[in-house]
Amino acid sequence: MSAAPHGASAAGPATGIPATGIPATGIPATGFFWHERCFWHDPGAIGVFSSPGEFLQPQPASESPESKRRLKNLLEVSGLIDELAVRKSLPAAREDLERFHTARYLDALETGDRAGGGDGGDCAPFMPGSLAAARQSTGLAIAAVEAVASGELSRAYALCRPPGHHAEADRGRGFCLLGNIPVAVMRARALGLVKRVAILDWDVHHGNGHQTAFYADPAVFTVSLHQAGNYPLETGGFEEQGEGPGLGYNLNLPLPPGGGLGAYDHAMTELVLPAIEAFDPELIVVACGYDACAKDPLGKMLLNSGAFARMTAQVMALARSACGGRLVMIHEGGYSEGYAPLCGHAVIETLAGSNIHVPDPQNDEIAAWAYQSLQPHQRDLINGWREGWAAAGRLPPTRHSWIRSSRS
Ligand code: ZN
User: Fold this and answer.
1) Catalytic: 400?
2) What pLDDT sits at residue 209?
């Protein structure tokens, strides 16, 4: 374990998870996949307000490279990157993209990219060069999933940009051009690396892309923990549970705005983790957005970096219990340029079992905000969903010790 440099402390996050660090072989068990080209995607000037008007001073895009570049830079400055297996990847091939996307949509993207840019469908703007960045982003997800599914790495984090969880088969949506996780999971399954996959999306927005990709597929369990009624407006309800053979394999938890540490912990321990455990996955993929943090301009939730570290530790404990620790985290949204990198570092230091801890000067203050504890309306909603899921026979009969031990 290397010493903590440059002011980073060696205390480690309070996750209750024993450090694993670099194994005796000297090969880091945790992969970190990134590529500079992903930062070159230019979405144009789509800011916090997606419909600029006469009285809106032009502003940089909300989905800018800055929060991701700062996260990568923070890993360098803290020294954590030296404990990771740093990898790049090839861009996603057309053949892989076509497992999820329609040929017509991919053709339109290529034509638009050559013609000077456009919109992938619904608030998914792009400029020339964006398609190369998007294919690179999907390529990172493919490589990360493949490395873990094949056993080459124990777990991995992919710093994907543009994000992917809103992209649907025939259109881009919500800053997303290509479905990074669906394409990666479909390829891994096509190669026979894995059969049963659980996708947990804790981005503050509903993971509609994952839901549509696998809605009728009982081999991929999609779970989305999001702010109710945020983008997209028309999807994300608890009643959307899959169709045909996929009925019972899609779980939405649309939390009321204002959800904080108590609400997320209750949702995770009471329903999300047991539901995934009952599914018995061979691999867990987390759509890791940071826009549920208290500082995000596009979300109205109250998480701090410690909450992201705790959720990561909880999913790691689940992965160890359910699928040999196989866990891949794919970067999604997160628009606070200052705070998202601190949350990302907390996630990656937890994932790597590192003693390098970057102090978050706002963590304790956010935790002390009013209404951070589980509120009655949040408890009633989550317990109701749990009862509904249990009544359908989709929860384990007993609560296992790793859930209790993952609670702080
Ligand atoms: Zn989001």
Assistant:
1) no
2) 98
